[in-house]
């Protein structure tokens, strides 16, 4: 963990996709410009709003065209959570 590290708007963190995220992403228009996404995959997220030191809104950058908007996501190791780079298995 990075106990002294604070989150800021514009930070890029790692976000772990959930089943719901993957289903929504794979159903977005123009799937031919994007690779298949699955739960557990880690993607970069740029922070656009901070609710607390562990809860943010942001845009997840996809493997291919586009981004995916997520809201009120907590810091952690589970699916649908974000964490600082260096904490995920898929880096």
What features would you describe in this structure?
It is a single chain. Strand 2 and strand 3 (55-61) form a beta hairpin. The mean pLDDT is 90. This protein has one domain (12-83). Helix content is 9%, strand content 36%. It has one helix and five strands, in the order E-H-E-E-E-E. The longest helix is centred in the N-terminal third of the chain and has 8 residues, at 19-26. The protein has one helix at residues 19-26; strands at residues 12-16, 42-52, 55-61, 67-74, 82-83. The chain has a five-stranded antiparallel beta sheet, with no helix packed on it. The protein is mostly beta strands. It is globular, with a radius of gyration of 13 Å.
Task: Offer a quick outline of the entry.
9% of the residues lie in helices and 36% in strands.
Number of helices: 1
Helical/strand content category: mainly beta
Shape: globular
Rg over C-alpha atoms, rounded to the nearest angstrom: 13 Å
Walk across the major sheet and give the strand order: 4-3-2-1-5
Mean pLDDT over the residues: 90
Weakly predicted, low-confidence segments: none
Strand proportion: 35-45%
Write the topology of this structure.
Layout: E1 12-16, H1 19-26, E2 42-52, E3 55-61, E4 67-74, E5 82-83
Antiparallel strand pairs: 1-2, 1-5, 2-3, 3-4
Q: Which short descriptors sum up this protein?
A:
single chain, 91 residues, mainly beta, 36% strand, globular
């Amino acid at each position: 963990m990075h106990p002294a590290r604070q989150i800021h708007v514009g930070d890029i963190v790692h976000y772990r996709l959930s089943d719901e995220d993957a289903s929504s992403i794979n159903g977005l228009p123009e799937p031919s410009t994007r690779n298949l996404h699955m739960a557990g995959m880690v993607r970069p997220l740029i922070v656009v709003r901070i609710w607390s030191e562990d809860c943010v809104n942001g845009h997840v950058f996809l493997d291919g065209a586009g981004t995916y908007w997520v809201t009120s996501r907590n810091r952690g190791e589970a699916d649908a959570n974000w964490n600082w780079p260096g904490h995920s298995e898929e880096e």
